[in-house]
Structures are given as C-alpha cells and as structure tokens.
Amino acid sequence: MTSTTSGPEGSGPTELTGLTASELAAKIAAGEVSAVEVTRAHLDRLEALEPAVHAFLHVDREAALAAASRADEERADGTPPSPLAGVPLALKDVLTTTDMPTTCGSRMLEGWTPPYDSTVAARLRAAGVVILGKTNMDEFAMGSSTENSAFGPTRNPWDTDRVPGGSGGGSSAALAAFEAPLAIGTDTGGSIRQPAAVTGTVGVKPTYGGVSRYGLVAFSSSLDQAGPCGRTVLDTAMLHEVIAGHDPMDSTSVDAPVPKVTAAAREGATGDLRGVRVGVVREFGGEGYQQGVRDSFRAAVDTLTSLGAEVVEVSCPHFEYALGAYYLIAPSECSSNLARFDAMRYGLRVGDDGTRSTEEVMSLTREQGFGPEVKRRIMLGTYALSSGYYDAYYGQAQKVRTLITRDFEAAFAQVDVLVSPTTPTTAFRIGERVDDPMAMYLADLCTIPSNLAGNAAMSVPSGLSAEDGMPVGLQIMAPPMADDRLYRVGAAYEAARDAASEVPLLDRVPRLEVA
Amino acid sequence: MSTISRDEVAHLAGLARLAVSEEELNTFAGQLDVILDAVARVGEVAADDIPPTSHAVPVTNVFRTDEVRDGLSREQALAGAPATEENRFRVPRILNEEA
User: Fold this and answer.
1) In a designed cystine with A360, which of A74, A326, A356, A402 is the match (CB 3.0 to 4.6 A)?
2) Does A246 touch chain B (CB under 8 A)?
3) Which of A167, A335, A459, A465 is catalytic?
4) pLDDT single digits (tens) A315-371
5) Catalytic pick from A92, A118, A149, A171?
6) Locate the Amidase domain: which residues (chain A) (predicted)?
7) What is the spatial distance between Cα A443 and Cα A189, in angstroms, rounded to a whole number?
C-alpha cells in the first residue's frame, strides 16, 4: 500500500504511518529509518486521533520508545531478533503484560497489572516488536461491537457513528485509523474476523492450539484463540509466525511445526490459484444478508475463479445450528471461568466493611464489577449446566459441535478452502443492537463454526458495500493446521482486488477529525 | 421449552454469586427467555448416537519434567490483592456465627 497525502492538520496517515508492517520492517532493517522514528510517528498520530477513535485503553509512550530504542541497538549490532523487529503493534487488553494494566475492558480488573507476561506478549517482545499499548474490547471478550467495554465504546474509523466490531474493536480500529500497522486479537466466536471485516482490515483466527493461550484471560477455553491482525495479508502472516508455535505452558498448545504462512502469502501474491479447490458454503449468504455483502461476496468468488481456482458449492447442513450450540457452550465455559473473579486474590472488592461475609462481598463485587452482557452469559451458562437442563442444552450443544466438525471434514475432503461472507451485515450504528442480545449475536453467524471445530479462518477485505460505503469481509476457512492455505488464497485475492481498483482499499478510509 | 421465570433468574444469580437488583431481574428474565428460545434449536437435531465434543483438538494430560523452577514471589502473588495481612490474602469472615 502506498501512503496517502497528509493534510496540514495531519489527519491522514503520514509517510511512516501509511506504510505496511513489511515495508516498515524493510526500511528499519536497511537503516533508512529508525524504529524510534517509526514508533514516535505512530504514537503522535495515535495521540492526535484517540479522542475520535478510542482504540486504546492504555498507551505507554516511554516504554514503547525504550523498546524501539532496543530494537535499533540490536540492528546496529547486527542481531535483529526477527523480521518484524522495531515495528509497532497494538495488543488486545485480554493478554497479560507485566508493564501495563490488563483490564479485559472490565471494572473488575481496573488498574490491575498482572505478575506475568502472556506467551504472546513475551514472544512479541523477544521478536523486537514494539508494543504501543493495550486495545479496547467488549468486556471479557463478550460482544460484537466493543460497546460492552466498561471504559466506553471504540469508534469505526470509516464512520465514527458506527461500531468497529467486537470483541476486538480496539485492535481493528487502531489498524484502520493507521494508529498501528499490526495488532493482536483473540477470537472465541469471531472476535478477530468480524472486527476485521467491518473495518476493512485482515484478521486471522489460527487453528485452535496454534498460538499459546498462556496469559490470555479465559472466556471460553475450548474456543478462545489469539491471532494476528494487519492491514495486508503479508503483514498478518509475518506476525502469525512471531506468535505461533508450541508452548509448554499451555496444555492445549499443538506440538507441531508452524505452517509456513509468510511463504504462502508471498506465493499467493503472484496471483495464481490454479489447482486450488474453493468451496462456497451454501448455507451462508442468502436471506438475512445485506445486499451489499451478498454482491461483494459474489464478486469475490468471481475473482477467485478468474485467478484459476476451481469453485464449487458445498453444503454444511449443521452450520445453521452453530449459533445455538455456541451460545450454550461459550456461556457454560464462561460461567465456570469467570468464577475466578471472587474479590479475594486480585481485582475489585466491594463492600468489605467488616459486617459482610465473604459470600456477600463476592456477590456485591461481581454485581458491580461485571457489565450486563457478562452477567447474562454467566447466568445463561449456569442455567445450561444445571441439573435437569444439562442434557437438553449443554449436552446437546456438544453433540451438535461434533456434527459441525464432521460437516467441515466432509467439505475439506472435496475442497482445499471454504469461503463465505465474514458477517451478514456491514458495521452497524453505535447503540443499534445494544439492548437486543440476539441481534448482536447474529453478527457472528458465519464465524462461529470455525471456533466450534477449531479450524483456521481469515477475514480479508472484499471492498465496500454499495448502499453504505462500509467495508465488507470475505471469510476463508482451512482445515486444522493448514493455516498456510488461508494466506495463499487471501494474498492472491487481495492482489487481484487492488489491481482492479484505482485506489487501494485502505486509502479510502475517511480522514478523521483531529481533536 | 424455556420460559424462564423471575424466580429462576434470582436463583441462577444466587448460584453465580451475582447480587442482581429487582430491575435487572425483570430485564434479564425477558432477555434470557429470548436467548434460550433461539438456542433451544439445537434440540431439533437428531443426535442420540452422536458422541459429544468438548474440545476441538484431542486433549491429553500434559506433564512437565519434575524439576524445581521459580514461581511467583510472595510479593508478586500479593501485589494485586484487594487486602493483605501478614503476607497473606485477607478475606472477609467466612463463617456466619459470631467470632
């Protein structure tokens, strides 16, 4: 991507903030620009735009500049620790960091600084990636709009009256606002892919177990997966390789070589998809999908065909039950995981005045520390797991999970990747769905199956919807540990998309008012 | 299948240690009803002979080698505590009878 012009007020990306992570990395490696200069440019832009966007919950300017300075020293010594050394990044506030608070967007953890680094944060630091700060999110990653943050919503840089998706809306907005070239998200039901889709950015949920969950504050342990976000497929691939790989600290971490995703992105960018079999999921994309999303998806499939891919329709008959299974399994695991917030060892404590029992203090603290969506899910999960309802709800949902996994296995016996729209609609308006939980849940309709089955999935921008000018995402799904296929197909599609358009997609992000 | 009453919601809140207000009970009862109606669709799938999946990848217990390693120091472990006393977590009384 080329940089856009910068207005005198600096509301467009500057020369440095307009570059991709791979371009920045190359310039830093060649000594054309220092990591400190790159980091300072992003911090300056971020500080100017944050009043309008609110992508970050914490920014640590001094720590970021110190990390950048270390990256510069390592380069001068001839020992850069990774290809992304010196490149800035926005980290979702659900991953623990010893030098910054980790709140998960919740009053429960306001001001809490964890005693250990998540493996993701540790690997980023070891790779010389510069962590600018922690990004806003729906409380404990429950939501699809970032409106459930206890610290106020994040706004979509394409239209600040609209949501940036969720739960990782801070990370997606930081990318689309050119506040950071890279970001980390976590995806339990679509929280990386749906925000990517509605902000015109790229997000990948790796295969379950592909990236360590150590230090990822758990929402639904059998579904949670951290992953890379960027503005281009290649940048996302480079970040994927930094954070992925076996971790003995996570018992569900897959002990297998990391798929060669950067090589796959470079190969894909040559634009040849001959021999690649692409399956269009029949169950996703009809009634209930916004017209602009359907049009964009159809055009994206035509583009894949023109690149030589063999496109067929595939049926996954149990996907229509995925949403129901998810909203039983995820709340059940959440009700168990969030029991740890007991007001005793860390986090908020309310009402401990010497007259109340531990149980009363616990209940008051959880009442005041959790927002409405978290409470809804805790109670839903408590209900689904209670005796008398267990078999009909949680037990049945686990069987549906098996059937969805079998649908994927049957589909991947016929094709190499599956495609669908990432979300049924473009970004909705702030406040539009906040009082209607089911309407909010529908935003994750197409992304949930890959969480239930644990396979890899990507959202890559497929242009703008005609009726509202908002970004649309193409979802690509691949079998477990075949994450490289996402990058090959995604990079090929991205190159063809930009070649067919006069202005690269992200150069069309409107300029934001600088406070 | 569903129709969850206000009393049931109050019971669930108690089980989950959530001191919900009267107003919240009304709101949550209505919302949980709508959600349960929607998710109950999983019951339409004939799955009697289908094994349940609890995890997407086969999970086996993982052991590390039995060697001494550093853990958190006492100071680190207590650093985030709402209240401490004599290098321990201080908690409110846990028994109801008089001390």
Assistant:
1) A356
2) no
3) A167
4) 999 999 999 999 999 999 999 999 999 999 999 999 999 999 999 999 999 999 999
5) A92
6) 37-486
7) 10
ipTM of the complex: 0.93
Contact A201, A473 (CB under 8 A): no
Q: How close B71 comes to chain A (CA, Å)?
A: 10
Q: Is A369 on the interface with B (CB under 8 A)?
A: no
Structural domain total, chain A: 1
CATH at A299: 3.90.1300.10
- List the beta bridge partners of residue A186: A226
Residue A363 lies in a domain: no
Q: Do A357 and B92 touch (CB under 8 A)?
A: yes
Would you kindly state where each structural domain of chain B is located, as residue ranges? Answer: 1-47
A106 is catalytic: no
- Identify whether A394 is part of a domain: no
- A92 catalytically annotated: yes
- Report residue A29 as tokens: 């490696």
Q: Do B62 and A324 touch (CB under 8 A)?
A: no
3-state secondary structure labels for all residues of A80-119: CCCCCCCCEEEEECCECCCCCCCCCCCHHHCCCCCCCCCH
Q: What is the pTM of this model?
A: 0.96
Residue A75: CA count within 13 A, CB half-sphere: 27
Report yes or no on A341 lying in a domain.
Answer: no
Q: Is A167 a catalytic residue?
A: yes
Encode pLDDT of A163-221 as tens digits. Answer: 999 999 999 999 999 999 999 999 999 999 999 999 999 999 999 999 999 999 999 99
Determine, yes or no, domain membership for A469. yes
